[in-house]
Write a structure and sequence with these properties.
- By secondary structure, the chain is α+β, with helices and mostly antiparallel strands.
- It folds into 3 domains: 55 residues, no CATH class; 91 residues, Winged helix-like DNA-binding domain superfamily/Winged helix DNA-binding domain (Arc Repressor Mutant, subunit A, Orthogonal Bundle); 52 residues, Herpes Virus-1, CATH 3.30.40.10.
- The chain has 9 helices and 10 strands.
- β2 and β3 form a beta hairpin.
- α1 packs antiparallel against α2.
- The longest helix has 16 residues.
- Its EC number is 2.3.2.27.
- It comes from Uria aalge.
- Belongs to the NSE1 family.
Length: 237
């Protein structure tokens, strides 16, 4: 017996349209939107059924190689939802929006961020690469402008002159990063998703997101690594 996927209603379609126009949405916003869509289109609403509601949309997006994915902000641990194109790698997807040398600068910034110890790269280090681009060298001023656009488009986040990958970028590019940076990319030992900003155990080398570190050690009398049980030497955030 083939079980029919739950029907897409106008509430589902409206939810998808709004999410498409935002690209990414914080969990509380997505919950509000879920409620509003159900009310407008007089569809049964249950406040704890957002993930079911989304999986109905995902069933219908499958033939289009699209999917709404849930991810976590590495800063505060809040859930986010993003619409992901499964048919393309992130670089081909970005190719329609940026020139070749802009994409090369993004790749180089990503290399620095992923191979760094704390998941950040300084603007100075990124800008120093601008005149070494193989596609077409960039002046510093021009590169600064491009970085600004990457932040506006939510591929990068910037804090006090330090850049990291935006939550949207992590959700969309997780598979790409895990397969292209196998030596340095790590998954969080607690939530098992890609960890860019993380703390690492000095003894066994496992990594944990800062929000996961905070949550995990909240219940422990003394901080010990969940993997090797050695003392956790990093400062608990």
């Amino acid at each position: 017996n083939i079980v029919m996927a739950a029907q897409m209603t106008d509430a589902h379609r409206r939810f998808l349209q709004v999410l498409m126009s935002h690209g990414i949405m914080e969990g509380s916003e997505a919950r509000k939107l879920h409620r509003r869509c159900c009310e407008i289109h007089k569809v049964y609403y249950a406040h704890d059924k957002l993930d079911d509601f989304i999986s109905t949309i995902n069933n219908h997006l499958q033939p289009l190689f699209m999917q709404i994915r849930k991810g976590m902000s590495e800063d505060d641990g809040r859930a986010h939802y993003a619409l992901v194109n499964l048919a393309e790698t992130e670089i081909t997807k970005m190719a329609s929006d940026y020139t070749e040398n802009e994409l090369e600068l993004f790749r180089k910034a990503m290399d620095l961020i992923i191979s760094s110890e704390n998941g950040f790269a300084s603007s100075t280090d990124i800008l120093n690469l601008a005149d070494q681009l193989k596609t077409k060298k960039m002046k510093k001023k021009e590169a600064e402008q491009v970085l600004k656009v990457f932040v506006e488009d939510r591929w990068l986040s910037e804090r006090n002159g330090e850049y990291t990958l935006h939550t949207r970028c992590i959700i969309e590019m997780e598979q790409y990063i895990l397969s292209n940076y196998q030596d340095v990319a790590r998954k969080c030992n607690i939530c098992h998703s890609l960890a860019i900003q993380s703390q690492v155990c000095e003894s066994c080398g496992i990594g944990m997101h800062l929000p996961c570190v905070r949550k995990y050690f909240r219940t422990q009398t003394e901080p010990r690594c969940p993997q090797c049980n050695d003392f956790w030497s990093c400062d608990i955030p």
